[in-house]
Design a protein that fits this description.
Structural class: mainly alpha
Protein name: Fiber protein Fb15
Strand content: under 5%
Radius of gyration: 23 Å
Largest sheet: none
Number of domains: 2
Oligomer: single chain
Length: 90
C-alpha cells in the first residue's frame, strides 16, 4: 500500500523533481516519525487491549527470523552433503 502511494506521487513528477521528493519523503526525521506513529498504533491496538497477539507475533516472527539467519548455513551443509554423495565421501 505504501509503495503504491509513493508510485502514484512519483508518477506525476518530472525526473528532475524525483531526487528532492525522495530526500524529503525518506529523510531520517520522516522515518523516525513514521516508526513512532506505527509503534503508538501497535500499542493502542494490541498492548492496551490486553490482547495475546503480541506474544504470537514474537513467536512467529522470531521463528521466521531464526530460520532466515540459519538458512545460509543449512544450504552449505546440504551442498556439502550432496557433493559428498556424488563423489563417494562420507
Amino acid at each position: 500500500m505504501a509503495m503504491r502511494r509513493v508510485y502514484s506521487e512519483i508518477k506525476g513528477k518530472k525526473v528532475k523533481e524525483i531526487p528532492g521528493y525522495i530526500k524529503s519523503t525518506f529523510s531520517v526525521e520522516t522515518i523516525k516519525t513514521s516508526v513512532k506513529k506505527s509503534l503508538d498504533n501497535y500499542n493502542d491496538k494490541y498492548i492496551q487491549t490486553s490482547s495475546v497477539d503480541p506474544l504470537l507475533h514474537i513467536c512467529f516472527y522470531g521463528m521466521a527470523f531464526s530460520y532466515l539467519v540459519a538458512l545460509p548455513n543449512e544450504r552449505r551443509h546440504l551442498e556439502h552433503q550432496q557433493h559428498a554423495k556424488e563423489h563417494g565421501g562420507h
